[in-house]
Prior knowledge:
mainly alpha; two-stranded antiparallel ribbon; 2 strands; 69% helix
Amino acid sequence: MIFSMIYGIISSLFYVALHPINNGAFPKPLTPLEENRLIEQMIKGEKNARDTLIEHNLRLVAHIVKKYSTEKTEQDDLISIGTIGLIKGISTFNPTKGIKLATYVARCIENEILMHFRSLKKTAQDISINEPIDTDKDGNDLSLIDIIADDSNLIEDLDLRMKTENLKKYMKQVLTPRERLIISLRFGLVGGKEYTQKEVAHKLDISRSYVSRLEKKALIKLYNRFCDSDINSQNT
């Protein structure tokens, strides 16, 4: 439970850092050649390649959110949640399964959003990781479980545990008490419940827009702290 919440925070760091806040314009879609090259680099462990794939697929999150968002105030929450699905999809993509990146990532984004609604009891739709999402080169059905379930999960879990410890430390180092409280409430670090920006605003008696600004500011601080840590580790 705690690891899924930490994963959400770490994923949101990328969203805030990559989201086109200033001019609202998304990066142009990658050409098939560029996408394949970046996928190959990502598989070799190049972090910048993964980040570039995430950045150039953010428009897919916005497109899918339009199908589920009923209120303007709900869009920011759904975009953040959808971006978590995007990052999970990019990070677990396996090109040897014969499925297109956009197809797989889109399903991951939708599943993340639908599971969010399910947790809030806004929908009764069942989400199954065994549901076919595409076919392989031989025409056999492929499900999410076929693609996600592999030995790399163990490595990812260990990496996540390390990031969890770092996150706790970095929150104390770079965030103000109010920023720590907002991040804790938004991502379920207080009692396990994830609060919406509107609920946090009501609880702290401040405006929702102010909560949004403080949340983005805090996530950028954490993102920069994680980046500084990566740079330092590479130089040692």
